[in-house]
Specification:
119 residues, alpha+beta, five-stranded mixed β-sheet, 20% helix, 25% strand, elongated
Length: 119
């Protein structure tokens, strides 16, 4: 047991609806979400405050606040180049701080189609 504030790796809890949405995703997307999860639980500050703090995230991922006027509020971790996101909050407690995943969303990108050939 530590005397001060606990640090990473953080605990992560999923709302039942978020977990059900995660389990319904295709396998390759679940792998991407697990990579995003690994980034969240191991980062020093899950709020990603400051300039370029999410620059170390893998390509295609970024973190943004849900509401800009709520610095300690929910965040969205975008993955798959913005085709999906994890909405999460960080519960900062002295004992057992944790990340709570509130929502998982992903929509497959439409493939680029060339314009029809002229006859």
């Amino acid at each position: 047991m530590t005397d001060g504030f606990m640090g990473p790796p953080w605990q992560m809890d999923w709302r039942l609806t978020a977990l059900a949405a995660f389990e319904a995703l295709p396998d390759h997307v679940r792998e991407t979400v697990l990579v995003a999860r690994g980034e969240l639980v191991s980062v020093k500050d899950p709020y990603f405050r400051g300039i370029e703090t999410d620059a170390a995230l893998p390509d295609g991922m970024q973190v943004r606040p849900i509401r800009s006027n709520s610095p300690k509020g929910a965040r969205a971790l975008f993955f798959d180049n913005g085709n999906g996101w994890l909405k999460y909050s960080f519960v900062r407690r002295i004992e057992d701080p944790q990340i709570v995943v509130e929502e998982v969303f992903w929509q497959e990108a439409e493939p680029l189609t060339p314009p029809p050939a002229e006859e």
